[in-house]
Amino acid sequence: MEHGDRHITVVDEQGNEQLCEILFTFESDDFGKSYVFYYPVSAEAEDEDGETEVHVSAFIPGDENEEGELLPIETEEEWDMIEEVWNTFCAEQEEGEE
Q: Which residues, if any, are the signal sequence?
């Protein structure tokens, strides 16, 4: 994972690079980890309904000249916490649109 201001380059298991935009990051004191919500910048990332799939990973930030590292979500408890954060984010976005 390479960091830009609001973009990261994600490398998949096949070695393909994909430019993604960071939606937001947060830290969890309960799990002692940082998390990032991101989505692919390319138009091909949209599904048949025109929706863009958002991904989430734990991450270890890199130093100034080093790449960071994306990590998988490991437990059901982490997924529950992430879902709660996502639902709060979506509710706040909807309130802002009204």
A: none
